[in-house]
TrEMBL record:
Organism from which the protein derives: Tabrizicola oligotrophica
GO MF terms, alphabetically ordered: acyltransferase activity, transferring groups other than amino-acyl groups
Cleaved signal peptide residues: none
Keywords noted in UniProt: Acyltransferase, Transferase
UniProt protein name: N-acetyltransferase
Length: 158
């Protein structure tokens, strides 16, 4: 089941996101997410969805403005993460459908994905959803003693 996130979902969202941060190169950050901070973001109305199985959060997706300023008001960047047990079950696709539907209703023109070059599964996932690579920033990130490229992918929504 896909539903809007509530502040009560923040600990589960943080657990999923922090596993990605600690255990993979899918994100460049090494700073783990704080459940209280996530709960506050959700409470302010940040667009956020969760995928649940038997009421347990197994994934989440959110989006926000790609860059600051009025010239970018119709360009958004999203984040999506699934628990390892939820991968391959269609939850990612369902989360993205909810996210993109909401974004279209808000007049969003383009959705951007910033995907680590060390995350070929993430690149393939986005390509299957109609995202196309539109740029690559070489050595944009550094984690675990390695320089990592950032692959930018986009989908025109309107």
């Amino acid at each position: 089941m896909i539903r809007p996130a509530t502040p009560a979902d923040a600990p589960a969202i943080a657990a999923i996101w922090n596993a990605v941060i600690r255990d993979s190169l899918a994100t460049f950050t090494t700073l783990e997410k704080d459940p209280a901070t996530l709960a506050a973001q959700i409470a302010t109305g940040t667009p956020w969805w969760v995928a649940c199985v038997n009421d347990a959060v197994q994934g989440h997706a959110t989006y926000g403005q790609f860059r600051g300023g009025p010239g970018y008001v119709y360009s958004m960047e999203h984040s999506i993460h699934l628990s390892n047990s939820a991968k391959g079950m269609g939850m990612g696709r369902a989360l993205m459908a909810a996210l993109e539907s909401h974004a279209r209703a808000q007049g969003v023109h383009v959705m951007v994905a910033g995907v680590s070059s060390e995350n070929p599964e993430g690149q393939a996932f986005h390509a299957r959803l109609g995202y196309a690579e539109c740029g690559r920033i070489l050595q944009a990130g550094h984690k675990w003693g390695r320089w990592l490229d950032l692959v930018l992918m986009q989908k025109i929504l309107t």
